[in-house]
Design goal:
Strand content: under 5%
Shape: globular
CATH topology of the largest domain: Growth Hormone, Chain: A
Radius of gyration: 21 Å
Helix content: over 70%
CATH class of the largest domain: Mainly Alpha
Largest sheet: none
């Protein structure tokens, strides 16, 4: 690894990894798990705002509390779970537990009679996401050949987006063709959720090199490790062992995230420019279709050209798309912009995660993904507030220009400050 990274020297390839053209079976299995999980989740999520406000009589503030509490919970747990997976013998138990918890509680929204019950289910669902995400991504980094990590993460994101594409379409079919109500659709989401747990239990395998050793290189005492005590002091100590290029990367990622507002603003802009509300789900499906088709090739670009190039290109593309949304005047332009916006995700999602795996040693990879997701989560909280305030005070063009400007600064910083890590390690 170049650029002064403190990552470990090349080691023998772990059992279960595949060089060259084949992805490891565990990566394929985790892709199937994410497809089924997003299938189940997206059967529910697009219907949730209307269900809360119409069926349960909740207001916009309640909706904001529900989603804000859910996402904040997930962001914090991703850090803790990733760190725990480094200290434990195996990552898989946290992955299984996270998927199982979400699959169990998610359909219970169909039984909710009050908004607080939906809040409880959503928080439990996000607890599951927080438990599984960092260990899962660290596991992908463990089993994927270093020269094809971008492809592995890109494939996983493609499968995830494919589930997000199929889920709303199945929900639409159940509502409009079968004649089910929203509560029944929520309950039917239990089927793909249960299948996801089956796949992760049966087909996901860890490399033997991790299960045979216990990693305690974070400087903590063996007694603390065995007790399982999790304190912020230990997390800070673990953070101090991360290489400097990793923190520089997270700094510019955080800056970019401050300009990356919620996609709900893009949908609002689309409606304001003449896209009919009943057509918005198709616009949303277009975005996920492009993400799904392009994410694997986008990840492969980072294997060939290094991680920074595709990430910088994606951030520049994001800046252009945001300026386009600010300047757009006709609805057909929105459709084009949403399609191009999907390419931004394809260029960045796999490469960003592969860069994390490249920049840190294997023994600290879970914690690194935890810090990665925490940076994104913390940055996302004020991002939409800043964007909404700029829209309200100065208009949509100023808001979109703010997001574009932050993306340009972040791209310049990543390109000039953060050293690259060769993808072939």
């Amino acid at each position: 690894m170049s650029g002064g990274s403190a990552a470990e020297p090349p080691a023998p390839r772990p059992a279960g990894t595949h060089p060259g053209g084949f992805l490891p079976p565990t990566v394929v299995a985790l892709g199937a798990v994410s497809f089924l999980t997003d299938f189940a989740s997206e059967m529910i999520y697009p219907l949730l705002p209307v269900f809360l406000t119409t069926t349960l009589g909740a207001g916009a503030v309640t909706l904001g509390v529900v989603e804000g509490a859910a996402e904040s919970t997930a962001a914090l747990l991703k850090l803790v779970s990733g760190w725990l997976s480094d200290r434990a013998r195996r990552r898989k138990p946290l992955v299984v537990g996270g998927y199982a918890l979400a699959a169990l509680v998610r359909p219970l929204i169909g039984l909710a009679q009050a908004a607080w019950q939906v809040l409880a289910v959503r928080v439990a669902d996000r607890v599951g996401k927080g438990l599984r995400t960092s260990p899962r991504d660290a596991l992908i980094g463990d089993v994927a050949d270093p020269g094809s990590r971008g492809r592995a993460f890109g494939f996983h994101r493609a499968a995830d987006h494919a589930g997000a594409l199929v889920g709303p379409l199945v929900a639409f079919a159940l509502l409009h063709w079968v004649g089910l109500g929203p509560r029944s659709v929520f309950l039917w989401a239990a089927v793909p959720g249960a299948l996801s747990v089956l796949v992760v239990v049966v087909w996901v395998r860890e490399p033997a090199t991790r299960s045979e050793r216990r990693t305690a290189d974070d400087g903590t005492a063996r007694g603390e490790n065995e007790s399982g005590a999790v304190t912020w002091a230990l997390l800070r100590r673990s953070a101090g062992l991360m290489p400097r290029p990793f923190w520089a990367y997270l700094a510019f990622l955080f800056l970019f995230t401050l300009g990356n507002s919620a996609d709900a603003f893009l949908l609002l802009r689309a409606v304001r420019l003449g896209v009919a509300p009943e057509v918005v789900p198709l616009l949303w499906s277009l975005l996920h279709l492009v993400k799904s088709l392009a994410s694997t090739p986008g990840g492969m670009l980072s294997d060939r050209w290094g991680r920074r190039g595709p990430i910088v290109a994606g951030w520049l593309l994001y800046a252009g798309v945001y300026l386009g949304f600010g300047l757009a005047r006709q609805s057909w332009q929105v459709w084009t912009l949403f399609g191009v916006y999907g390419l931004f995700f394809a260029l960045t999602e796999g490469a960003e995660r592969a860069f994390v795996a490249d920049l840190v040693p294997t023994a600290r990879r879970g914690a690194a993904f935890g810090w990665f997701y925490l940076a994104v989560g913390v940055g996302a909280l004020p991002a939409s507030v800043l964007f909404g305030a700029a829209w309200h005070a100065l208009g949509p063009l100023a808001a979109f220009a703010l997001g574009a400007g932050l993306a340009l600064v972040a791209a310049a910083g990543l390109l000039t400050v953060v050293p690259g890590a060769p993808a072939a390690r």
